[in-house]
Protein backbone atom coordinates (compact mmCIF):
# COMPACT_ATOMS: atom_id res chain seq x y z
CA UNK A 1 0.00 0.00 0.00
CA UNK A 2 1.24 3.48 -0.86
CA UNK A 3 2.79 5.55 1.91
CA UNK A 4 1.20 8.67 0.44
CA UNK A 5 -1.38 10.18 2.77
CA UNK A 6 -4.73 10.69 1.09
CA UNK A 7 -7.56 13.05 1.97
CA UNK A 8 -11.07 13.43 0.63
CA UNK A 9 -12.80 16.78 0.87
CA UNK A 10 -16.50 17.00 -0.02
CA UNK A 11 -17.77 20.13 -1.69
CA UNK A 12 -14.18 20.91 -2.67
CA UNK A 13 -14.68 22.54 -6.03
CA UNK A 14 -14.89 26.08 -4.62
CA UNK A 15 -14.79 28.29 -1.55
CA UNK A 16 -13.70 26.89 1.80
CA UNK A 17 -13.70 23.30 0.54
CA UNK A 18 -11.29 24.17 -2.25
CA UNK A 19 -8.96 25.93 0.17
CA UNK A 20 -9.04 22.95 2.54
CA UNK A 21 -8.03 20.74 -0.39
CA UNK A 22 -5.30 23.20 -1.38
CA UNK A 23 -4.00 23.42 2.18
CA UNK A 24 -3.85 19.67 2.66
CA UNK A 25 -2.23 19.34 -0.75
CA UNK A 26 0.46 21.82 0.21
CA UNK A 27 1.23 19.59 3.19
CA UNK A 28 1.84 16.65 0.89
CA UNK A 29 -1.53 14.95 0.92
CA UNK A 30 -2.97 13.44 -2.21
CA UNK A 31 -6.39 15.06 -2.31
CA UNK A 32 -9.68 13.78 -3.65
CA UNK A 33 -11.86 16.69 -4.79
CA UNK A 34 -15.42 15.61 -4.05
CA UNK A 35 -18.07 17.54 -5.97
CA UNK A 36 -21.31 17.01 -7.86
CA UNK A 37 -20.69 19.28 -10.84
CA UNK A 38 -18.29 17.63 -13.28
CA UNK A 39 -17.09 20.84 -14.92
CA UNK A 40 -16.41 22.65 -11.64
CA UNK A 41 -14.81 19.55 -10.17
CA UNK A 42 -12.35 19.10 -13.02
CA UNK A 43 -11.60 22.83 -13.11
CA UNK A 44 -10.70 22.67 -9.43
CA UNK A 45 -8.55 19.58 -9.97
CA UNK A 46 -6.71 21.30 -12.81
CA UNK A 47 -6.10 24.40 -10.71
CA UNK A 48 -4.80 22.33 -7.80
CA UNK A 49 -2.50 20.33 -10.05
CA UNK A 50 -1.15 23.54 -11.57
CA UNK A 51 -0.27 24.59 -8.02
CA UNK A 52 1.64 21.36 -7.46
CA UNK A 53 -1.05 19.41 -5.59
CA UNK A 54 -1.55 15.72 -6.32
CA UNK A 55 -5.31 16.00 -6.83
CA UNK A 56 -7.95 13.76 -8.36
CA UNK A 57 -11.65 14.25 -8.96
CA UNK A 58 -14.31 12.30 -7.08
CA UNK A 59 -17.85 12.53 -8.47
CA UNK A 60 -19.89 12.84 -5.29
CA UNK A 61 -23.43 13.86 -4.41
CA UNK A 62 -23.72 13.44 -0.63
CA UNK A 63 -27.52 13.11 -0.90
CA UNK A 64 -27.29 10.10 -3.23
CA UNK A 65 -26.41 6.75 -1.69
CA UNK A 66 -25.20 5.21 -4.96
CA UNK A 67 -23.02 8.22 -5.68
CA UNK A 68 -21.44 7.89 -2.24
CA UNK A 69 -20.84 4.16 -2.71
CA UNK A 70 -19.26 4.79 -6.10
CA UNK A 71 -17.05 7.49 -4.59
CA UNK A 72 -15.76 5.09 -1.93
CA UNK A 73 -14.98 2.50 -4.58
CA UNK A 74 -13.11 5.10 -6.63
CA UNK A 75 -10.99 6.21 -3.65
CA UNK A 76 -10.21 2.58 -2.88
CA UNK A 77 -9.07 1.94 -6.46
CA UNK A 78 -6.93 5.06 -6.62
CA UNK A 79 -5.53 5.20 -3.10
CA UNK A 80 -6.26 1.99 -1.23
CA UNK A 81 -7.01 3.82 1.99
CA UNK A 82 -8.08 7.21 3.34
CA UNK A 83 -6.17 9.16 5.98
CA UNK A 84 -8.42 12.20 6.31
CA UNK A 85 -12.06 12.86 5.50
CA UNK A 86 -13.34 16.43 5.57
CA UNK A 87 -17.14 16.60 5.39
CA UNK A 88 -17.41 20.13 4.01
CA UNK A 89 -20.36 19.94 1.61
CA UNK A 90 -23.35 21.85 2.93
CA UNK A 91 -26.23 24.11 2.01
CA UNK A 92 -28.08 26.91 3.76
CA UNK A 93 -31.53 26.27 2.33
CA UNK A 94 -33.87 28.90 0.97
CA UNK A 95 -33.82 32.10 3.00
CA UNK A 96 -35.78 35.33 3.13
CA UNK A 97 -33.91 38.63 2.74
CA UNK A 98 -31.37 39.12 5.50
CA UNK A 99 -30.58 35.37 5.71
CA UNK A 100 -33.75 34.82 7.73
CA UNK A 101 -35.48 31.46 8.07
CA UNK A 102 -38.56 32.15 10.18
CA UNK A 103 -39.54 28.99 12.09
CA UNK A 104 -43.19 30.07 12.22
CA UNK A 105 -43.53 29.87 8.43
CA UNK A 106 -40.73 27.42 7.65
CA UNK A 107 -41.31 25.18 4.64
CA UNK A 108 -40.72 21.64 5.88
CA UNK A 109 -39.29 20.65 2.51
CA UNK A 110 -36.57 23.27 3.00
CA UNK A 111 -35.80 21.76 6.40
CA UNK A 112 -35.72 18.23 4.99
CA UNK A 113 -33.40 19.26 2.17
CA UNK A 114 -30.98 21.04 4.50
CA UNK A 115 -30.85 18.14 6.96
CA UNK A 116 -30.47 15.62 4.13
CA UNK A 117 -27.35 17.41 2.92
CA UNK A 118 -25.82 18.80 6.12
CA UNK A 119 -26.49 15.85 8.43
CA UNK A 120 -27.55 12.72 6.58
CA UNK A 121 -24.99 13.44 3.88
CA UNK A 122 -22.26 13.37 6.51
CA UNK A 123 -23.49 10.00 7.78
CA UNK A 124 -23.63 8.57 4.27
CA UNK A 125 -20.13 9.66 3.37
CA UNK A 126 -18.51 8.90 6.72
CA UNK A 127 -19.92 5.39 6.93
CA UNK A 128 -19.02 4.61 3.33
CA UNK A 129 -15.45 5.80 3.86
CA UNK A 130 -14.92 4.13 7.25
CA UNK A 131 -13.44 0.89 5.87
CA UNK A 132 -10.83 2.98 4.04
CA UNK A 133 -10.18 5.18 7.07
CA UNK A 134 -9.64 2.12 9.26
CA UNK A 135 -6.74 1.14 7.00
CA UNK A 136 -4.90 4.34 8.00
CA UNK A 137 -2.50 4.50 10.93
CA UNK A 138 -3.91 7.89 11.98
CA UNK A 139 -7.37 8.47 10.49
CA UNK A 140 -8.97 11.88 10.94
CA UNK A 141 -12.52 13.05 10.27
CA UNK A 142 -13.52 16.72 10.25
CA UNK A 143 -17.11 17.90 10.05
CA UNK A 144 -17.32 21.49 8.86
CA UNK A 145 -19.91 23.09 11.13
CA UNK A 146 -20.70 26.67 12.15
CA UNK A 147 -20.83 28.64 15.36
CA UNK A 148 -24.52 29.29 14.61
CA UNK A 149 -24.97 25.65 15.60
CA UNK A 150 -23.79 26.47 19.12
CA UNK A 151 -26.85 26.30 21.38
CA UNK A 152 -24.93 28.14 24.09
CA UNK A 153 -24.29 31.09 21.80
CA UNK A 154 -27.75 31.01 20.23
CA UNK A 155 -29.42 31.11 23.64
CA UNK A 156 -27.26 33.94 25.05
CA UNK A 157 -28.98 37.31 24.45
CA UNK A 158 -25.68 39.10 25.01
CA UNK A 159 -24.00 37.40 22.05
CA UNK A 160 -24.64 38.63 18.51
CA UNK A 161 -25.07 35.40 16.59
CA UNK A 162 -26.83 36.73 13.50
CA UNK A 163 -30.35 36.29 12.13
CA UNK A 164 -32.83 33.53 12.92
CA UNK A 165 -32.02 30.57 10.65
CA UNK A 166 -34.49 27.86 11.58
CA UNK A 167 -33.21 25.28 9.06
CA UNK A 168 -29.50 25.95 8.70
CA UNK A 169 -28.53 26.64 12.33
CA UNK A 170 -30.29 23.57 13.80
CA UNK A 171 -28.75 21.40 11.07
CA UNK A 172 -25.34 22.41 12.38
CA UNK A 173 -26.44 21.73 15.98
CA UNK A 174 -27.52 18.29 14.78
CA UNK A 175 -24.16 17.82 13.05
CA UNK A 176 -22.32 18.80 16.23
CA UNK A 177 -24.32 16.30 18.28
CA UNK A 178 -23.65 13.63 15.67
CA UNK A 179 -19.92 14.36 15.86
CA UNK A 180 -20.01 13.60 19.59
CA UNK A 181 -21.82 10.31 18.99
CA UNK A 182 -19.22 9.23 16.44
CA UNK A 183 -16.45 10.17 18.88
CA UNK A 184 -18.07 8.04 21.57
CA UNK A 185 -18.34 5.12 19.15
CA UNK A 186 -14.69 5.56 18.12
CA UNK A 187 -13.45 5.65 21.74
CA UNK A 188 -10.45 3.41 22.16
CA UNK A 189 -9.58 3.53 18.45
CA UNK A 190 -7.13 5.68 16.51
CA UNK A 191 -9.91 7.64 14.74
CA UNK A 192 -10.19 11.28 15.78
CA UNK A 193 -13.30 13.21 14.77
CA UNK A 194 -14.04 16.87 15.43
CA UNK A 195 -16.22 19.73 14.21
CA UNK A 196 -14.73 22.92 12.76
CA UNK A 197 -16.20 26.41 12.47
CA UNK A 198 -14.67 28.42 9.60
CA UNK A 199 -16.18 31.73 10.74
CA UNK A 200 -18.06 34.14 8.48
CA UNK A 201 -16.28 33.73 5.17
CA UNK A 202 -16.82 35.73 2.00
CA UNK A 203 -17.91 33.08 -0.50
CA UNK A 204 -20.91 32.59 -2.77
CA UNK A 205 -22.47 30.67 0.15
CA UNK A 206 -22.70 33.97 2.07
CA UNK A 207 -23.25 36.21 -0.92
CA UNK A 208 -19.57 37.15 -0.54
CA UNK A 209 -20.37 38.86 2.76
CA UNK A 210 -17.98 38.28 5.63
CA UNK A 211 -14.66 39.47 7.05
CA UNK A 212 -12.75 36.25 6.44
CA UNK A 213 -11.20 34.85 3.28
CA UNK A 214 -11.72 31.23 2.19
CA UNK A 215 -8.06 30.58 3.05
CA UNK A 216 -8.66 31.81 6.60
CA UNK A 217 -11.87 29.78 6.83
CA UNK A 218 -9.99 26.61 5.93
CA UNK A 219 -7.34 26.82 8.66
CA UNK A 220 -9.19 25.09 11.50
CA UNK A 221 -10.34 22.20 9.33
CA UNK A 222 -6.81 21.69 8.03
CA UNK A 223 -5.43 21.67 11.57
CA UNK A 224 -8.00 19.11 12.72
CA UNK A 225 -7.42 16.92 9.65
CA UNK A 226 -3.72 16.73 10.52
CA UNK A 227 -3.89 16.30 14.30
CA UNK A 228 -1.15 14.21 15.87
CA UNK A 229 -2.01 10.94 17.58
CA UNK A 230 -3.49 11.60 20.99
CA UNK A 231 -5.10 14.84 19.83
CA UNK A 232 -8.59 15.95 20.81
CA UNK A 233 -11.68 14.18 19.60
CA UNK A 234 -15.40 14.84 19.91
CA UNK A 235 -14.83 18.60 20.20
CA UNK A 236 -15.86 21.76 18.35
CA UNK A 237 -13.19 24.27 17.34
CA UNK A 238 -12.72 27.65 15.71
CA UNK A 239 -9.49 29.62 15.23
CA UNK A 240 -9.63 31.01 18.77
CA UNK A 241 -10.16 27.65 20.43
CA UNK A 242 -13.11 25.57 21.59
CA UNK A 243 -16.64 26.61 20.64
CA UNK A 244 -19.25 25.92 23.35
CA UNK A 245 -21.90 23.41 22.41
From TrEMBL:
Entry keywords, A to Z: NADP, Oxidoreductase
Domain of life: Bacteria
Keyword Coiled coil: no
Record-linked InterPro entries: CBR1-like (IPR045313), NAD(P)-bd_dom_sf (IPR036291), SDR_fam (IPR002347)
Family affiliation: Belongs to the short-chain dehydrogenases/reductases (SDR) family.
Name by which UniProt lists this protein: SDR family oxidoreductase
Amino acid sequence: MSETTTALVTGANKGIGYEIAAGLGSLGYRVGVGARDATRRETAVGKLRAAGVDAFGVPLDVTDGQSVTDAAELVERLAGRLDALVNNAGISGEMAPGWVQDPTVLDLEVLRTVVDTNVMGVVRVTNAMLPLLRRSASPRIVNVSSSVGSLARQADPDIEIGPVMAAYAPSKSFLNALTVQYARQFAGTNILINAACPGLVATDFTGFQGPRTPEQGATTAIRLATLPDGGPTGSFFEDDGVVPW
